[in-house]
What we know:
Chain A is an alpha+beta fold. Chain A has helices at residues 16-28, 35-56, 90-94, 110-117, and strands at residues 4-11, 64-72, 75-82, 120-126, 130-138. Chain A has a 5-stranded antiparallel β-sheet, covered by helices on one side. In chain A, a hairpin with a 3-residue loop joins strand 4 (120-126) and strand 5. With 111 residues, chain B is α/β, with parallel strands linked by helices. Chain B has 4 helices and 5 strands, in the order ββαβαβαβα.
Amino acid sequence: MYDNMMKIEFLSKSQNESFARVAVAAFASQLDPTVEEISDVKTAVSEAVTNAIIHGYGEKEDGIVVIEVGLNKNQIEITVKDEGCGIDDINRAREPLYTSRPDLERSGMGFTVMESFMDSVEIESNQNVGTRIHMKKIFSSL
Amino acid sequence: MYLDFETSGDKLILVLSGELDHHSAEEVRNKIDDIINRVGTNKVIMDFANVTFMDSSGIGVIIGRYKKLTMKNGTLCITRVKGSVERVFELSGLFKIIKVYKTLEEAVNII
């Protein structure tokens, strides 16, 4: 199905957010994206992984976050999954500035950033089962 | 993320370096609040020239500092955001409530 793919999984520790960004960027680099496109992907991945850590696992550090990346011609597909508590109301979660954790000084802009920096974002979530974020972006060819 | 600071008259300049994400946000927000309290100033400039990455967690940190300063009738402004950091700022609409300057000089003279 994909020309190339990779899958990584790591503990839901915040120090892994940087690793996740770099790992996805490194894998995506074979498509020769621009500096801006790679920045966009890194930021979107950062948002999704942060959500899994803070919201999915409620900051517990023993959860597993899974990232799968598939490359198809000049398109990148990124799936970020967790087996955390799930999203109560997906439409609400997508609203800019809405956050279920105002106590953590969250801006509530995670999904807005993902939707702006990627071409599409799909969310699947079930309470107490987990959440799956699927994002796609086409890199413009030279 | 590294945090450095200097004062210019009654203004505090916070120089952030590195990546501002959820992981570094916790430490940075406490350090910033600590410096602001110790220096005892109400006019704060956050310089982003050396910030290489920021996601919406960084926006949360900025808004938090903005709220705290505003409660004391203080001012917060931002300087030298660039690249994708600037785009995350734009997306958040923060430019509408927090002034952004292209140079430190401008910020120091104006606020």
